[in-house]
């Protein structure tokens, strides 16, 4: 009986660890019918690894994607008070996240946070508001930030273009 309890605990601890920040801190937003939620799982990223590349940019894209496990995005368009949603959301991530970069310009405000252990970024979390939109994005896997800025540029992911500033540093 003791072994069953230990195995159940280990299985539960493993599944809790695999939660991304959106599942862990922002699940309350799932009840909001005014959101758009997009989830891309590891199988989609795995399929990209079979892609044939014709140039250096495509090879960089393939390499950047190969280590990703999931991407989740929540967008609330025409939010009545996106700044209030933003201010509440940036308080949610736990101590395992640290601020990587903050962008504050015109009608945009974004925080980029990372969960890093031993030099490996396991999750990138973007929380922002822009022109009446509230946005949360989570990328999990083994993330190379320089590859990620290249990925965001090549895929034209809205608001991720701010990560190109990492290459400048």
* Main sheet: strand order: 1-2-6-5-4-3
Q: Report the sheet-strand fraction.
A: 25-35%
- Tell the overall outline: globular
DSSP summary, beta strand count: 6
Ends apart, CA distance between termini: 55 Å
**Cα-atom Rg, whole angstroms?**
17 Å
Biggest sheet architecture: 6 strands, antiparallel
How many domain regions?
Answer: 1
* Helix-strand string: HHEHHEHEEEEHH
> What percent of residues adopt helix (DSSP H or I)?
25-40%
Mean pLDDT: 78
Instruction: Give unreliable regions as ranges.
Output: 1-17
Number of helices: 7
- Structural class comes to alpha+beta
Q: What do you see in this structure?
A:
This protein starts with a helix and ends with a helix. It has one domain (21-168). By secondary structure, it is of the alpha+beta class. It is built from 7 helices and 6 strands, in the order ααβααβαββββαα. It is 37% helix and 33% strand. Strand 3 (97-105) and strand 4 (108-117) form a beta hairpin.
